[in-house]
Design brief:
single chain, 548 residues, alpha+beta, seven-stranded mixed sheet, five-stranded mixed sheet, 34% helix, binds glycyl-adenosine-5'-phosphate
């Protein structure tokens, strides 16, 4: 999809999100924090509705799944055992010219024979970079406006500097296979691992004080030795914000299984905040540093992982599609062997076709027995399961003790919210009150996800109509349905406002209501209006929500 189309749909959704109160930039009045977002009055409802629907399907409606709500801060040994302290990192690279820092695995990858123009922001910057390259690498690139030319990929590990029409390079350099994303520079540092977990300190410790006196006492140490000593001080009281909700389900496996007498196969589900110090935050709320996940660890017998992986992949795909206007925009993709996380023997991504192309929405992974075994090894706890009914396949004796394998459907709740905003966004040409063509934006959110289920609108602010409307709104509240009383602006404007908010039904109280007790119910998508008895409105909406 073209960049223009990508940006226009995203820009429209981002703009509507702000105007209507779905999503705001965090700390906007201070210039905004790029990596974090706030969910506004409609966004908070939409997010909760998505998460509640997930909980209902994954926990309430299943006898084989139970839920937990664990703390965000866990013992730091958890992250040691899970491998997150050692391995949860992105490969980071610095451009030696512009100082731009970026993820190597996300950078553009020019091919052998491609020219490598360095694209600067303006002529002044181009002159500066030309000088820096001359000083550091002893070559003078040709400046054409704001572009520096002369570099070309020679083979998979070499690029060279070519002058004018010369076929032979004047100088060659190591090529890493990629260039910096903003400037296209191939002059890069080595890759460094950057841990994605947010670290803090717990307890009444004066870490800065300890570090200061350590440095004072050890002023003869070199940089590496000092760093090691400082890390040891920090590690004593270090805690981490969880980068996934999953680990608590492994750590609490025994407590959950025993307290609820669960028999394998069974699952433990959790939803909530996770935090990752992402280098590349992108596409609005698609990738942010603070986000919400909905994860379930499903514990199974070793050997049954293929069958359960396919089962959960299909259940999860059906679930996402069941709330969508455009189910054809979802697909799944099997991971190649070299993509698999260290703990997985197979994995499917459920992908959505975002304006920039297909990308991940949820991962459904076959996590083997890796996590339970690691936590057993590091904690000493016996994280296994005894099945009295089964024979041990090795000894042939009755009763089998084993470490369960795990299938993990791991979804992003905030990423799901973006998907449903994109799916719901529609621009339509419709007849106005006088039958003339007019355009409207309508958020066709699934009625059960819609922030407001029903808006109750008195046609005028007098003649007892507001009182009837308010009484009706209270009836909806008592039935657990989020309704909204709305008397601001003309009725046409109110309908448009609720179309943009995704409110599936608008009930209008008018003069006739006082005469015969009937009201109109307007359907957001068809814009058709039905006149029904005001006493039947609750039942009408309840039926619609159940059938949706
Ligand atoms: N426990 C496995 C796990 O966390 P993951 O693929 O890293 O797997 C699962 O994350 C889902 O969480 C992703 O498919 C995505 O929807 C969401 N997610 C991950 N990182 C995110 C981020 N930085 N911002 C928003 N959502 C994110």
């Amino acid at each position: 999809m073209s960049d223009k189309k990508t940006s226009s749909k995203m820009e429209k959704v981002i703009s509507l999100s702000k105007q209507r109160g779905f999503v705001f930039q965090s700390s906007e009045i201070y210039g905004g924090l790029k990596s974090a977002y706030d969910y506004g009055p409609l966004g908070v409802e939409l997010k909760r509705n998505i998460m509640n629907e997930w909980w209902r399907t994954m926990v309430h409606e299943r006898e084989d799944v139970i839920g937990i709500d664990a703390s965000i801060i866990m013992h730091s040994k958890v992250w040691n055992a899970s491998g997150h302290l050692a391995g949860f990192s992105d490969p980071l690279v610095d451009c030696l010219i512009s100082k731009e820092r970026f993820r190597a695995d996300k950078a553009p990858t020019p091919n052998v024979g491609d020219l490598l123009p360095i694209n600067c922001l303006d002529k002044g910057q181009a002159k500066d970079y030309q000088k820096t390259i001359l000083t550091r690498f002893n070559i003078e690139l040709k400046r054409e406006g704001k572009t520096l030319n002369g570099l070309k990929v020679i083979d998979e590990s070499t690029f060279g500097f070519f002058q004018e029409d010369n076929k032979e390079p004047i100088e060659t350099f190591d090529y890493k296979g990629y260039v910096s994303p903003t400037f296209g520079s191939p002059f890069l540092s080595d890759e460094r691992k950057f841990n994605l977990m947010f670290r803090s300190q717990i307890g009444p410790v004066d870490v800065l004080g300890e570090i200061t006196s350590y440095i004072e006492k050890n002023n003869k140490l070199n940089g590496t030795e000092l760093r090691k000593g400082i890390e040891d001080i920090i590690d004593k009281s270090a805690v981490y914000l969880r980068p996934e909700t999953a680990q608590a389900m492994f750590v609490q496996f025994l407590n959950c299984q025993q307290s609820m007498s669960m028999k394998v196969p069974f699952g433990i589900a959790q939803m909530g905040k996770s935090f990752r110090n992402e280098i590349t935050v992108e596409h609005f709320i698609f990738r942010s540093c603070e986000f919400e996940q909905m994860e379930m660890e499903f514990f199974i017998e070793p050997g049954s992982q293929k069958e359960w992986l396919n089962y959960w992949r299909d259940r999860r795909m059906d679930w996402w599609k069941s709330f969508a206007n455009h189910p054809e925009k979802f697909r799944y993709r099997s991971h190649e062997k070299n993509e698999l996380a260290h703990y997985a023997d197979a994995c499917y991504d459920i992908e959505y076709e975002y304006p920039w192309g297909f990308d991940e929405l949820e991962g459904v992974a076959s996590r083997t027995d890796y996590d339970l075994k690691k936590h057993a090894e590091h904690s000493g706890a016996k994280l296994s399961y005894f099945d009295q009914q089964k024979q041990d396949p090795e000894t042939g004796k009755n009763g089998w003790r084993y470490t369960p394998y795990v299938i993990e459907p791991a979804a992003g709740a905030t990423r799901g919210l973006l998907v449903y905003l994109l799916d719901a966004y529609h621009e339509e040409t419709v007849p106005d009150a006088d039958g003339k063509e007019s355009s409207r934006i309508v958020m066709k959110l699934h009625p059960r996800l819609a922030p407001i289920k029903v808006a109750v609108l008195p046609l005028v602010k007098k003649d007892g109509l507001p009182e009837i409307a308010r009484e009706m709104v209270n009836k909806f509240f008592k039935a657990g349905i989020n309704a909204r009383y709305d008397e601001q602006h003309s009725i046409g404007k109110r309908y448009r406002r609720h179309d943009e908010a995704g409110t599936p039904y608008c009930i209008t109280i008018d003069g006739q209501t006082r005469e015969d007790g009937t009201v109109t119910i307007r359907d957001r998508d068809t814009m058709k209006q039905n006149r029904v008895s005001q006493n039947d409105t609750l039942q009408f909406i309840q039926k619609k929500l159940m059938e949706a």
